[in-house]
């Protein structure tokens, strides 16, 4: 099995973990978690310089999950990397659990920033990137946001700031699954040519298939070689891997019934067989 085949399989295994977590919890956001599986797998397995056994290592790369409702996917990869015990995944959203519905930096190692209110992540990433530059560190900051949350104006203030300070140590990744809570992004508030918008704000913008680990790896390699601000638009499918969830806004945060759970696991594991 090649490296890319292994990564592709790991992303699919991540989806199984996500569905297991959300079904047991009786709540959680499946659609946006499933769409980001390959992105997180490539980041944590291939791209970021991290030490899971030393989560506060000063020279680590930073990651901010701006789309905080995608927490199940982040928790799944953090557990796989050894930030905490995998058994804790079964406590998602339970009272006193370290695995809150949205990431909490005070409860779980590996969480750089508590996120939940959409639209804040890029601004936080700007602050982190600026701080690292002032400290003379070569660490990178990565921010993963959803396309729906780009409807928040704060993001575009952050983009202008990225451009002004020429933050070449910050990579903005957009999980472009085209669907948000109340419908498709185009139905709710269309953004038109997103790549052109980002480039007009001074960010060199790359696009790739967000479900292809080789394409993602190449996009990150290119991004890290660019001398200036950069964004990656990763084209994805909401609810990827589960036929009845794909592209459906209803599965933004819908509880998974026993019947739906069994069908989802059958489909996901069928790909792994």
UniProtKB/TrEMBL annotation:
EC number(s) given by UniProt: 2.2.1.1
Presence of the UniProt keyword Nucleus in the record: no
Molecular function terms from GO: transketolase activity
Transketolase N-terminal domain boundaries: 9-266
Superkingdom to which the source organism belongs: Bacteria
Cofactor: thiamine diphosphate
Record keywords, A-Z: Thiamine pyrophosphate, Transferase
Pfam families: Transketolase_N
Signal peptide limits: none
Top EC class, one word: transferase
Family: Belongs to the transketolase family.
Protein name: Transketolase
Record organism: Anaerosolibacter carboniphilus
């Amino acid at each position: 099995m090649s490296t890319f085949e292994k990564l592709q399989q790991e992303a699919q295994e991540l989806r199984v973990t996500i569905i297991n977590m959300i079904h047991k919890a009786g709540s959680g956001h499946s659609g946006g978690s499933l769409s980001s599986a390959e992105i997180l797998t490539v980041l944590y397995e291939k791209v970021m310089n991290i030490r899971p056994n030393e989560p506060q290592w000063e020279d680590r790369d930073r990651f901010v999950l701006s789309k905080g409702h995608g927490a199940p996917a982040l928790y799944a990869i953090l557990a796989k990397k050894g930030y905490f015990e995998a058994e804790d995944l079964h406590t998602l959203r339970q009272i006193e659990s370290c695995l809150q519905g949205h990431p909490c930096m005070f409860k779980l190692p590996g969480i750089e920033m508590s996120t939940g209110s959409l639209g804040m992540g890029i601004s936080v990433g700007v602050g982190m990137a600026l701080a690292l530059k002032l400290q003379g560190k070569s660490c990178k900051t990565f921010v993963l946001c959803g396309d729906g949350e780009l409807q928040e104006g704060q993001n575009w203030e952050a983009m202008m700031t990225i451009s002004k300070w020429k933050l070449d140590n910050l990579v903005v990744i957009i999980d472009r699954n085209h669907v948000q809570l109340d419908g498709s992004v185009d139905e709710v508030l269309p953004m038109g040519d997103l790549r052109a918008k980002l480039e007009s704000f001074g960010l060199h913008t790359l696009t790739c298939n967000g479900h292809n680990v080789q394409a993602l790896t190449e996009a990150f390699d290119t991004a890290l070689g660019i001398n200036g601000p950069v964004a990656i638009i990763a084209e994805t499918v909401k609810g990827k891997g589960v036929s009845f969830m794909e592209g459906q806004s209803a599965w933004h945060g819908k509880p998974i019934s026993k019947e739906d759970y069994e069908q989802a696991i059958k489909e996901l594991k069928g790909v792994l067989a």
